[in-house]
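Backbone Fold Data
Goal — fold tokens
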Amino acid sequence: MGGIKIGIIGGSGVYKIEGVEVIKEHKVSTPFGAPSSEVIEANLHGTPFFFIPRHGKHHNFTPSEVNYRANIFALKELGVEYIISVSAVGSLKEEFPPASFVIPDQFIDWTKGQRERTFFGNGIVGHVSVAEPVDTQLQKMIVETCKEAGVKHGAGGSYICIEGPQFSTKAESNIYRSFGASVIGMTNVPESYLAKEAGMAYATIAMVTDYDCWKEEHCTLEEIMKVMSANNQSAHAVLKKLLPKLHANPFTIKKENTFAVMSKPEKLSAEQTHILEVLLK
């Protein structure tokens, strides 16, 4: 496992990338419970990476039920430094049609307090800035790779995260559009914030499936499935170029958690000390 620094969180379609070889499945126990599944160690044409299917192997967790803390902690404990999130989203802007990708640089949290969104608490006090939740170096690398792969994409913008599992009402969708958000999804918060607390580089490949519900445009399930299939193929093309590029060109991560902890080390329990050792390493 030594030297595997890339982690992917996304759908099970990652398994189907041509050339991916599954090496091993790691059952990881964390202080925050179990991850969505075993952490899958895989190899793509010589590039090693870890993968977690966000909603479980059988898509059995809703966005609100995903154990985001366990997923991020498990990857960090295994040595991951760079996280590539692959997510389906709705578009809130005309210029981002279905089958295009958006690589956002900001998130808006519109969830409703049901999700555990921090590693701190229960005796550990820490404050980490999430002013820049996306690592700009990783984002730039993804944007460049989308260009190389010929995938239509947009760089920058905000991803608004709602609770789900219901989609928006039209009134809500238009409110989100008034915020200036580019895309809407249900999973990248608190995932991105937790990666920041863990000192990891995080960026999202947001794959547009539809125009949410603000646009008067009928879309059948069959049409959506066709878009999702096309998106998966485009994601495969990007990842096949991105993973070896990132593996060969690692960069220094700006860790916002270095001086975040305010609790006195001598007052912490063994488990609390372990949590901080993993997060701060």
